[in-house]
Amino acid sequence: MPEMPVRIAEVIEATSTEFTAAAYELLQAPPLGALVRAQARDERGGVYGLVYDIRTGSRDAGGRAVVRGRTYAGREVYDADIYHEHPDLAEVLQTEFSAVIVGFVDDGRICQFLPPQPPPVHYSVYECDIEEVQRFNQATDYFRTVLFMPHIPGDETLAAALRLAARAASDERAFLVRAGREIAALLHDDYDRLMAILRRIRP
Predict the structure, then answer these.
(1) 83: part of which helix (H) or strand (E)?
(2) How many CA atoms does the CB half-sphere of 160 hold within 13 Å?
(3) Is 179 helix (H, G, I), strand (E, B) or coil?
(4) Is residue 180 packed enough to be buried (19+ CB in 10 Å), middle (13-18) or exposed (0-12)?
(5) Quick one: how many helices (H) and strands (E) in the chain?
(6) Long-range pairs, 147-152, Cβ under 8 A, ≥24
(7) What CA–CA distance (Å, rounded) separates 174 from 176?
(8) Beta-carbon-side half-sphere exposure of residue 36 (alpha carbons within 13 Å)
(9) Contact call for residues 191 and 198 (beta carbons, < 8 A)
(10) DSSP structure string for 45-74
(11) What is this structure's pTM?
(12) 38, 31, 195: which is closest to 101 by C-alpha?
């Protein structure tokens, strides 16, 4: 498995089917559909997930961000300037992302089904590089997991993941054709849903 020395986040919650991680940098979560790898207890292992939800809010439970763009005195500061004016926001806000589990590493082999255990809380999370994305997408068994997982935006997540994977592929068109055929086989009885996904993955 390629070494990925830069940790982007750590697991703060995990179940058998998904995990949530807190990013180390505010507003620096991987994009929707990104393939990420959480470290497993076995140093040689890892748990793969596709990012399906990204959120930023107060670090304090039950807390909420407050308006900073306009003061009662009439002073106006907007967008990125707010973060420059208030560097303390990095201490009071936190960016988190959730990923649906789509596989794991077992003795150096990628398996595209649920691992025996989810990643441990407080273990590291890495965004996969091009080589790892290519290796993971040699198989497509994870398509079914994403499309039929309840309570997540599976269609949008898979489409986003395939757009990212296509950019990493040696032959983008061939990859998307193969992916489209796999999706068509899974959704052969739901034409409208199938076409909506295919429209989202066209280059």
Answers:
(1) helix 80-85
(2) 17
(3) helix
(4) middle
(5) 7, 7
(6) 147/183, 147/186, 147/187, 149/17, 149/100, 152/18, 152/52, 152/53, 152/100
(7) 6
(8) 36
(9) no
(10) -EEEEEEEEEEEEESSTT------SB-TT-
(11) 0.91
(12) 38
Q: What is the pLDDT of residue 72?
A: 63
Q: Coil, strand or helix: which one is 198?
A: helix
Per the CB < 8 A criterion, the answer to whether 96 and 22 are in contact is yes
Q: 11 by DSSP, 3-state: which? A: strand
Residues 94-121 have a mean pLDDT of 96
User: What is d(CA 60, CA 64) in angstroms, rounded to the nearest whole number?
Assistant: 8
- d(C-alpha 38, C-alpha 33), whole Å: 15
Query: In this model, does residue 129 exceed pLDDT 60?
Result: yes
Collapse the DSSP code of 19 into the 3-class scheme (helix H, G, I; strand E, B; otherwise coil) and give the result: strand
Cα gap 203→196, rounded to integer Å: 14
Closest to 19 (Cα-Cα) out of 42, 1, 44, 36:
36
Question: In angstroms, rounded to a whole number, what is the distance separating the alpha carbons of residues 145 and 142?
Answer: 5
Task: Find, among 86, 97, 190, 109, the residue nearest to 147 by Cα.
Answer: 190
- Residue 76 carries which DSSP code? B
Residue with tokens 């034409």: 191
Distance between CA 92 and CA 6 in Å, rounded?
Answer: 23
**Beta partners for residue 75, in sequence order:** none
**How much is the average pLDDT of 188-192?**
96
